[in-house]
Amino acid sequence: MPLSVEEIRKDFPIFERTVRDGKKLIYLDSGATSQKPNAVIDAESDFYRFHNSAAHRGVHQLAEEATDAYEGARETVATFLGAPGGSNEIVFTKSATEALNLLAYAMGNAAPGSRFALEPGDRIVVTEMEHHSNLVPWQQLAQRTGAELAWFEVTPDGRLDLSALDTVISHGTKVVALTHQSNVLGTINPLDEIVRRAHEVGAVVILDACQSAPHMRINVEELGIDFLAFSGHKALGPTGVGVLWGRINLLENLPPFLFGGSMIEMVTMTSATWAPVPQKFEAGVPNMAQAVGLAAALDYLTKIGMDNIHAHESALTGLLLDKLLAIDKVAVIGPTSNTERGSALSFTVSDIHPHDLGQFLDSQGIAVRTGAHCAWPLARRLNVSATTRASLYLYNDEQDCQALADGVVAAQRYFGSF
Amino acid sequence: MPLSVEEIRKDFPIFERTVRDGKKLIYLDSGATSQKPNAVIDAESDFYRFHNSAAHRGVHQLAEEATDAYEGARETVATFLGAPGGSNEIVFTKSATEALNLLAYAMGNAAPGSRFALEPGDRIVVTEMEHHSNLVPWQQLAQRTGAELAWFEVTPDGRLDLSALDTVISHGTKVVALTHQSNVLGTINPLDEIVRRAHEVGAVVILDACQSAPHMRINVEELGIDFLAFSGHKALGPTGVGVLWGRINLLENLPPFLFGGSMIEMVTMTSATWAPVPQKFEAGVPNMAQAVGLAAALDYLTKIGMDNIHAHESALTGLLLDKLLAIDKVAVIGPTSNTERGSALSFTVSDIHPHDLGQFLDSQGIAVRTGAHCAWPLARRLNVSATTRASLYLYNDEQDCQALADGVVAAQRYFGSF
Amino acid sequence: MQLDSLYQEVILDHYKHPQHKGLSSNFDAQVHHVNTSCGDEITLNITLEADIVSSLTWDGQGCSISQASVSMMSDLLLGKSINDASAILSSFCELMASKGTSTGDADLLEDAVAFAGVSKFPGRIKCALLGWMAFKDVVIQAQSK
Amino acid sequence: MQLDSLYQEVILDHYKHPQHKGLSSNFDAQVHHVNTSCGDEITLNITLEADIVSSLTWDGQGCSISQASVSMMSDLLLGKSINDASAILSSFCELMASKGTSTGDADLLEDAVAFAGVSKFPGRIKCALLGWMAFKDVVIQAQSK
Ligand SMILES: Cc1ncc(COP(=O)(O)O)c(C=O)c1O
Ligand SMILES: Cc1ncc(COP(=O)(O)O)c(C=O)c1O
């Protein structure tokens, strides 16, 4: 079903404002963070207004309501991801970055010889297109444990080079951590073969779904993966909340990460035991209002339909690719074919530095992101120190794409004297 | 200046609702989490409505506005705490629990022999009245590094036993981590001697200010400490945000904790270097809306005046102490004198289990907390497996105190058949 | 008053006069369960003869709901076969999950239907279940010996 | 149009025709600075003779603002005493912090007053400062040799 962007935009108050002296806001930076519908903003405020209290921690009515709201949010996330083990498989974090660090640190806390312990001779596999948040934690874990970090390279057209799949994911590989969709290239990575091989050697597969979960239907069971992380703020949700999903038996065997209130079973001055999953991973008074806001976001997305959203973005991406590629001196960084790709679209315009292009577009009301997009190794591999990235979401339409194309041409005119 | 509680309550929408079939809400659980004024709720929503975008990450107007809002919040926190090094000394975390874990993990990441590295022979000092969030992270760090965990004991009247100060804080002590105010006993700990001795042996002093920063004027310079943590949600702020303050030269020498976007300087596939403080400690898209909400909370508190708030709570605490101690079979756990104590007040009523008492009070609209309050070792030391805790804030008044005293008496009547 | 649906007379009775409290010195298995949110504790000893719960004793501390529940449970399950006990356990768990919509199966639960009111108080369900979860656990341990 | 206050003609000129670009093979100190938020990079070489900046060369890549700024800076500071250079540096930093309220001290900054407009674009201030911060750093290193 095609989306009615006009109707959808009415739900997002930010589109009522203008930028740069009255210009219409053309927001093409959802890959960095999405805008929020009223349903989400209200869910968060209503929690504070009507039910605010510390979940799990009181006998009073507000505490009951806060607990219900928070645990209800967990159910919503579990359903959204198709978690086979239900809501106990959902851990709320502050962000995807924290979720990925949680995994790396928790593995670092594993007792030598136990399920998740890494040691010299073990291997962690990532890819060259990872966001720093799914790269640096693994670098550090490798350094701390003596495990080796290996990676899949990226081809010039922005796909994973899987030709050496069985050598990269060697025996001894314990962790394969990769992104579902590149935040720079838009590439959607094929998972079947990677998952098959990873499981063959006994590794767990960790999926960074920051750029996919907000944009397409995800079913963790169908994907066959073991852990998944995504951020609320890129999925119409509030800032300050992320999700870690893990298979229940894995989460149960994984040591905890943050220590403190609510994650313990018993504590003495010198020792402590842990609460069951998921509490074991949620130390302290949780980000309740943000979890509730995220649930409202996922409800909103589900109501519109993830397949509809994906189809909408695909159509726009195709259009935008055509429009940009038709402009002289524009090069798209990443797949130029509109298959197995999402709606993050990076490009360069020769002679205009992305930072200058972004600034010019901003003067036209068009919000894009410029730089290396937290993926320096990828930028270096593709030999572009910086790019301009447009990223689309359900509230974008053809006019936005046209505005960007026009903006690029106008920038070429503006900086033409170069 | 005395507070006008009636006026203050009008700012807090939750007091417009009732609980348990129309009963007036008597909220005495601010020690777990505080209620939120409209100014805070609106600051968070307005961020989403008008300025939402990824701070530090775009060239467009919204990104500028988001960055301004977020960095402005940092300034507000720095001023609130009297940070001598200004806003670069302020790190936003998701909670106090995360802030304390950040310190413990970051020290764990220190290279052997460097400023913060711990090894066998080194000592970490805590107290017996710590919240689990300021105890378990240090237990774990001690276990990981081989350092020894030592602690100050608690006297029967709920004060720190500092008689052996110089032996507990021995040479070789690297860290002294303690709470400013006990969340169970209300005790405010004297810091001068502890800080003096800690610095004498070259240790850093880490203050858990969760229960003090929301309730009294804090000036980190006057306290002479090195690090401080508190949670936004206990200080009228949103959930999902906490603060770590640290002396700039210490933060600069401390290794990072969470790894990922925005905290790096350069990244290759196998190595990374770090951004300057405070970015080094803030990986990922930050909890911007929550930081902005927290700043609104601190502005609200500052406008009313921290000294006024403290005086108001002190007066109420004295009143409540008198009222409770006048009831037969009630025992106050913690200082019964109203000096060097805050407004968290724990008590037991013999023959009535706290959980039952809390439930009864709830039926009267009175929200208290029952249990061990995330401080099991303290409960064990004082030989009370659970207590009932009332905790006050600026929106409480004498009627609330009277309601609690009446509620306790009514509970004795209700359960009188025992 | 809604509170009365929680604090049924029979519950307060068991709290005041707990049954089978005091741990037997012999047992096939022993477990210690804690309600982490409020600190209630229960130790439960079981002895099985063939398939029958021939001894079930406990010690613990906590609120009226948790203590009355384990007291009533031991009364109810003592002398039952593992199969029958499991059916009663399931029925009790179902009642606890009913959010106040069920009055409980009096044939199976007998006096324990008094806990129906607890299901309306989400904060107390764990209290009521503490002893029962310990039972579930202790049976597994006794059987795997 | 506000954008024109950012992209002054003289800035675009320096971007197109950068001065002192190309690293000298001899130097007293060298630093490499990066704008972590956008990836702009600058390497700066300095040679001091007595107290005078006798050579100042650089290489780098980045946006027009960062590249023009370092180009203009090297033009401006070459041949100056460390004291004079520091005064100019301070004045430039002040201008960048002025949020569009200052037009800059033309006596000290000469052509670099063209960057006044940058101070209205908080996202670009770091770009304009990149070379200057590198200079601050490289002087310290050269002096501590
Ligand atoms: C003294 C003390 N320290 C630490 C914490 C932990 O704070 P949070 O749960 O917000 O991380 C709390 C409150 O729960 C507390 O009262
Ligand atoms: C692919 C990918 N992974 C991880 C992240 C990190 O997410 P966050 O910054 O919300 O933690 C992002 C976005 O910044 C991303 O695009």
TrEMBL record, chains A, B:
Keyword Transferase recorded: yes
Enzyme class: transferase
Ranges in a coiled coil: none
Record-linked InterPro entries: Aminotrans_V_dom, Aminotrans_V_PyrdxlP_BS, Cys_dSase_SufS, PyrdxlP-dep_Trfase, PyrdxlP-dep_Trfase_major, PyrdxlP-dep_Trfase_small
Cofactor(s) needed for function: pyridoxal 5'-phosphate
E.C. numbers: 2.8.1.7
Any one biological process term the GO annotation gives: cysteine metabolic process
Domain Aminotransferase class V: residue ranges: 26-404
A GO MF label: pyridoxal phosphate binding
CDD domains membership: SufS_like (cd06453)
Catalytic activity: (sulfur carrier)-H + L-cysteine = (sulfur carrier)-SH + L-alanine
Keyword terms, alphabetized: Pyridoxal phosphate, Transferase
Pfam families per the UniProt record, alphabetical: Aminotran_5 (PF00266)
Family: Belongs to the class-V pyridoxal-phosphate-dependent aminotransferase family. Csd subfamily.
PANTHER family in the record: CYSTEINE DESULFURASE, CYSTEINE DESULFURASE 1, CHLOROPLASTIC
Protein name per its UniProtKB record: cysteine desulfurase
Natural source organism: freshwater metagenome
The organism's taxonomic lineage, starting at the top: unclassified sequences, metagenomes, ecological metagenomes
Automatic annotation (TrEMBL), chains C, D:
GO biological process: iron-sulfur cluster assembly
One Pfam family this sequence matches: NifU_N
Coiled-coil annotated spans: none
GO MF entry, a single one: iron-sulfur cluster binding
Residues covered by the NIF system FeS cluster assembly NifU N-terminal domain: 7-127
SUPFAM superfamilies: SufE/NifU
Name assigned to this protein: Unannotated protein
